[in-house]
Structures are given as structure tokens and as C-alpha cells.
Amino acid sequence: MRALFLLAFLLSLTSCYESTRNCKDYKTGTFRFDYAVDGVSKSANFKRTERYSINFYDGKTDSSEVKWINDCEFVLYKINPKSIAEKDPIHMKILTTTDSSYTFEYAKASFNEGEPQRKEKGIAIKID
């Protein structure tokens, strides 16, 4: 009986917790995103407007159209895909926000039957 009471108490504490999401603060702006390729740390910048996201990385520029689903979720569509894989839209979801950054999750928005759905996480830091 005591264990059941303790479990109910712990569940009530965790059900009250909600992570902060002020997604409107991050719909537009200039951001930095740190990532790794083959164990090498890299950094990229991107500028997002209500309608477009322009990525700057490794001396290249890449643009996508942004379609907002709600204040915290959007889908990116490459404007000039260079391969079949780049034609796949990317679903982005803002999970949490701080006063200067947001944590997000992203995955292909469409996938073939039987293909595993792979989700990745990252942090974007607002620089302007």
C-alpha cells in the first residue's frame, strides 16, 4: 500500500512539469547550429524568415521553403534539391526554448514503407 501511495505521489509531481516553449520568439531570426560530421565538430548559420530558411555551411548556401504547421512545428522543402534524397521534406519540432536558444527534433516528413523513422535532436542559438 505504501509503495502504491509513493508511486501516485511521484506521478503527480512529474505530471505537473511542463517544459518551456516560447516558439514564436524563434520563428524568424539568424541562428547558429553546431554539429559533427565523422567526429569533426562544425558550425553553421541559418537565417529564417516566415517563409524561407537560408543555410550557410562549409562555404555553401542552401535554401528551403518553410511551411508552418503551428507555432512550434514546421516543414522544410528544399528549393533546389540536388538529389532524390534532398527532395524529401524535413519535419522540424521545437521541443524547448530558453532566452537565447531552442532545442529541436527533426526527421524526414515522408518515408517509404518499411524504412525506419530516424529522429535527430539539436540546439539552435539565436545570434540576431
From TrEMBL:
It comes from the Bacteria. This is DNA topoisomerase IV. It comes from Algibacter amylolyticus.
